Amino acid sequence: MSVSALSTRGLDKSFGSLVVAKDIALDLPQGERYALIGPNGAGKTTLINLITGMLRPDKGQIFLGDKEITALRPDERVKCGLVRTFQINTLFPHLSALEAVTLAVCERRGYAGSWWQELPAYGDAVEEAYAILVSLRLGASCYRPTHELAYGQQRLLEIALALATQPKVLLLDEPAAGVPQGESAELFSVIASLSQDIAVLFIEHDMNVVFRFAHRIIVMVGGRILVQGTPQEIAADMRVREVYLGGARHG
Amino acid sequence: MIASAFGVLFDGFAYGMLLFILSVGLSVTLGMMNFVNLAHCSFAMLGGFVTVTLTNELGWPFLASLPVAFLSAALVSVAFERVLYRRLYGASDLDQCLLTIGIVFVSVAVAAYIYGTIQQPLNLPPYLRGTVSILGQSFGAYRLFLVGISIAITVALVAALEYTRFGAQVRAAVDNQRMARGLGIDVDRVFAVTFALGSGLAGLGGALAIEIVGLDHAFAFTYLIYVLIVVAVGGLGSIAGSFVAASVLGISDMAGKYYFPELGAFLIYFVMVALLMWRPMGLFGRR
Amino acid sequence: MALSTVTEPQRYLAAQIRWQPIEIAFWLATLLPFVLTPNYLVLASQIAITALFALSLDLILGYAGIVSLGHAAYFGFGSYTAGLIAKWGWGEPLTGLVLAGAAAGALGYVTSFIIARFRHLALIMITLGLGLLLAEAANSASWLTGGADGLQGVRMWTLFGVFPFDLYGTTAYSYSLVVLFLAFLVARRLINSPFGLALRGIRENAIRMPAIGAPNPAHIRKVYTIAAVMAGIAGALLAQTTETVSLETLSFARSADVLVILILGGAGRLYGGIVGAIIYMVARDQFSGMNPQYWYFWIGTLLIAVVIFLPNGILGGMARLVRSERGRA
User: Fold this and answer.
1) Which residues from B are below 8 Å from C136, CB to CB?
2) pLDDT per residue over A23-59, tens digit each?
3) In this predicted model, which residue has the larger pLDDT, B148 or A193?
4) How far is the CA of A82 from the CAs of A69, A102, A169, B82, B99, in angstroms?
5) Chain C residues whose beta carbon lies within 8 Å of the beta carbon of residue B98
6) Are C210 and A112 a contacting pair at CB < 8 A?
7) What is the ipTM of this complex?
8) Does any CB of chain C come closer than 8 Å to the CB of residue A161?
9) pLDDT surpassing 70 at residue B287
10) What's the CATH number of domain A1-78+170-175+199-251, 3.40.640.10, 3.10.450.50, 3.40.50.300, 3.40.1790.10?
11) Which residues in chain C come in under a pLDDT of 50?
């Protein structure tokens, strides 16, 4: 039996009487694409914050492969290969896209502590950053400051930053949030072409996208996992219809 | 020994109450709008000088000058808020610090120009001078008055917060500004009123401070540090926090000066740094 | 690396950090006071020292985004260390300078563990508190520091065994200028390195940094220590060139002044502190006859005006002007 790329056991978190996560147990096998869906306030982003270490759980364990990472700091988890993107663009406004991705690459390669050599001398890091940007079709605009990029390009830059860390597990928090229907195709072709070595868990509201890309769906409601299964199973599940799919479509 | 310890405790508490009145406005407005108003003590200084002018130049009774100190500080703060502060609500912490430090510099210079650099004298009415004997202990009359007023103000503030509609709006705005706006609360108006009230209280505090710590042109600077300590340690947006922090700091400062005079202000800074390291959000802070 | 293997992105990055002609002109112009204003060399040396101090603050404020209201702690600590070394019999300037810088750096290193853990108001208050603590301690320890009277008996030997520190300030200015320039080269190198990029990342978005694997506290500790060394060296220069040290070097007033100077010139632009120092110190010298209250009135007004109209300082305003000119051309 192979070890999951990412797994959690009995994850609990409350803020006073508000339970945001209860007994969360999930297993994400290597190379798989899992979708995390649920109504607003279900605790999806909170779960990502717990897994990445931005929030400390009251109880429970988190494993990356066979290594327990529950006690590690967020940046240490990234070094182990666990990375996330943000639902709201969390970028470096005045750094150019090239500088931002180069920074991520330098952090990974351990160059970020060196203050004696000038940045252009680290040709390998710069080249790697540029290649990532080109693969996400940001090569032409990579010299412009981040705040000047179009919104859709900024969402791509979010992913570029994550890819620069060479993740084994990638957590995407609503990657297409705010991107109009017509433009999200490019974003999702990028996600579809992600390497099979990377396990992906993505939060999404657009059911078309979920059914297209996900191998398996996890449904969260009120801090708990309601049910998980293949897209067909979830589409047929009465409880899910009741709670989430029945009625207005999100998108 | 016990008698003097009790005396130090009372004097420290009275001093703490003064710090509370000076600081509570800043704590609430900082917690509500995250606007770093370092010129808060300039409004306090304004209140102090209004009282000095009214009582010394115009012969007003001391108690009558207090409401005027409150009102003038409140009104001037509204003017500043309209003209200058509004432009910087979205600006960085640093920019807000710098703008308001600039105002402090200007206010200190203006105060020196008009009133000179000496300590301002104050004629207290006879019933506020001397000591009063209660249960065999003698208490300074003015300090009793100060403690009385502070407790009255605290009760009024807490009651207003808990039981009035405006108070509920203030609590909502401090807790979660976006949500409050979403509920239809006019956060800008709530802030403007709270800001005026807080600055008015500072003005009152400045007037009350004259007898305890003195008033000179540099007041806006000197007491800024103590007010910031109370606010940072007590936690932003918390009246209870300001009350507790001000009491603790007032008593530590008095105790330090009484029992360890060589340490000077060392103790109060040390207590602040230590408390902040233990609770960086302040004792009652939320964020 | 052969030219043919330097790629476009590398060339872009290299162009960002190349020495501009105006920079070279600036540094050459710093030699002018020897020729044009030989009577003002003492002032010039004070300006160089203040510029170095402002540069050290720029590293933590302009580049890493740490707002410190207590940076004078390291300036004063370096000043007193250098002064005490000379007072106790070792008046050689260069070794005293290095030792003072190291001492300030050690203090910076120790305090950096505290600094790196906090942000926003708590951080501002802690830097203020630590600065005030040190100032109070120095005031109380008058057996060591001379208290309010200042440190007496600081006697410097000649520089390189040849150049005395005299009233004309020739040695003082040359010494301060060279130290400033060397420190500037180090700062420039640092800013243009991957570490400098990481600092800007922290300033731009401290939350994103750990999400790309960056250890913020480690980075902050490093830059804070370096800035403390630089500030300590500036303080040591002051002690050595004026042969005196006072409590003022540790005071909140000095921390506030250097903050105003840096903002005036423009933070995060490497030259902002130097430009701010020149303008501030020259103005203060010109208006030194003025009642000190009037001085604070104008500084206060200037500060308000800068924040509202020139938020990135003078250099920022100039950069905006250049950009809009280019846009029109």
Assistant:
1) 263-266, 269
2) 999 999 998 999 999 988 888 999 999 999 999 999 9
3) B148
4) 10, 19, 5, 48, 42
5) 259-260, 263, 303, 306-307
6) no
7) 0.90
8) yes
9) no
10) 3.40.50.300
11) 1-4
